[in-house]
Amino acid sequence: MPLKMRLARAGSKKRPYYHIVVADARSPRDGRFIEQIGAWNPMLPKDAERVTLKEDRIKHWLSEGAQPTDRVLRFLDKAGIASRGERKNPTKGLPGKKAQEREAERKQREEDAAAAAAEAEAAKNAPAETPAEEAPAE
């Protein structure tokens, strides 16, 4: 049976409170679980004690093969129970495809406007220097 250490939501509407539980991976999020091993109250200020963990039970379930979810692994890493590897996603901060296309179009318009302004400036100075041609006589 694949075991997961994950969050189970409790609390009322717009007032979340989460239990950290060990559950079968196939059971629903707020459904049946094997054991409650901690709690997380995100409504408390960040400097308060937001996360409570039962370290001995967590170590027991880790030795049994329970896999923590990413959020639970963050809590365990901060408590020094388990280590969370550094993640690298170089494209996370980049704008989406359409936004990149709009940015490229905007830059192209700016370059075209600058080139047109330079041509207009050159055309403005050029006619004063060249002599005008005479019309042919009939």
UniProtKB/TrEMBL annotation:
GO terms for cellular component: cytoplasm; small ribosomal subunit. Signal peptide: none annotated. InterPro entries: Ribosomal_bS16, Ribosomal_bS16_dom_sf. Residues 114-130 have a biased composition (Low complexity). Transmembrane segments: none annotated. Keywords: Ribonucleoprotein, Ribosomal protein. It comes from the Bacteria. Residues 79-138 are annotated as: Disordered. Residues 98-112 have a biased composition (Basic and acidic residues). It holds the Pfam family Ribosomal_S16. GO terms for biological process: translation. One of its GO terms (molecular function) is structural constituent of ribosome. NCBIfam families: S16. Belongs to the bacterial ribosomal protein bS16 family. This is Small ribosomal subunit protein bS16. The gene is rpsP.
